[in-house]
Amino acid sequence: MKQGRIVRAMAGYYHVYSAGDIYLTKPRGLFRLENITPTVGDKVDFEPDILHMEGTIISIYPRDNLLLRPRVSNISSSLMVFSLSQPVPDYLLLDKLICNSISQGIEPILVFNKCDLDQEERKRAKEIYSLTPYSVHFVSALTGQGIDDLRQCLGGGIHVVSGPSGSGKSSLLNAFGVKHEVEVGEISSKLKRGRHTTRHVQLLPIEEDTFIVDTPGFSNLDLNDNIDPLLLRECFEEFIPFMQECRYDNCLHAPEPQCGVKTALKNSLIHPKRYENYLTLLDILQSRKDYL
Length: 292
Ligand SMILES: Nc1nc2c(ncn2[C@@H]2O[C@H](COP(=O)(O)OP(=O)(O)OP(=O)(O)O)[C@@H](O)[C@H]2O)c(=O)[nH]1
Ligand SMILES: [Zn+2]
Description:
CATH class of the largest domain: Alpha Beta
Bound molecules: guanosine-5'-triphosphate, zinc ion
CATH superfamily of the largest domain: P-loop containing nucleotide triphosphate hydrolases
Oligomer: single chain
Low-confidence stretches: 182-198
Mean pLDDT: 89
CATH architecture of the largest domain: 3-Layer(aba) Sandwich
Largest sheet: 6 strands, mixed
């Protein structure tokens, strides 16, 4: 029996990555009876047929979470990749992506790329997010600066990459040493057939048990539908401790008097840019509601 990770589902097979190899596996029949569908991201025990690099999935470990679009389980974090320059960071977009991530229960990790290009913007980004609970990395996919630290910080698990066009997502994956096609050797003709089918969501290994989700168009550039104004408040996590000081339980920290968040803002305990973006997003949500 071996342990592995389902990294792709293709042409009726689950591709399981284990110690640098890919096995083409099928689930044991019982799963269908039990209505269990193996999913990319699942950690599994499987019985290998080493001669043919095939196998049978025997059991699936309990999932930490399950994203539905695309269908991937056990996501540890979402890497928000923004460049400090060319293009300059759109902090409103970043805050939107952070909200989407938190509303799905996924930890955001902020990655500012191209730190070889701009020191001023680096200072600004650091300031804006220093009062938030998120881990912030400054890297250069070009020079390799900060890449090893980031890899270490990931420390296992499955990580989604999102961010605007041109921020350096592909360059970052290359800097991690990701191979876009995991080497499969010449072992299975079935696998080769599979490779000609359309690209599905897949996990790319960067360490033995650290994977990046590779799927085009993953980042939703709008706020998720499940976010309403009350949830938005929770998505700006550094505001939460100050909400206890708000006079009204349902305070949205906008026109309300005696608001703990606005007091914290005045006392420089919340960054003005974060508060400004919060108000903009609140506005968007409230006008969405007017439409309904
Ligand atoms: N100076 C500098 N340039 C970089 C760095 N990382 C990426 N670039 C350049 O930025 C441009 C965009 O990089 P990509 O990796 O293609 O960006 P992407 O986010 O994958 O872009 P999309 O595929 O459009 O989403 C390329 O010309 C890269 O060479 C960096 O750390 N420093
Ligand atoms: Zn308030």
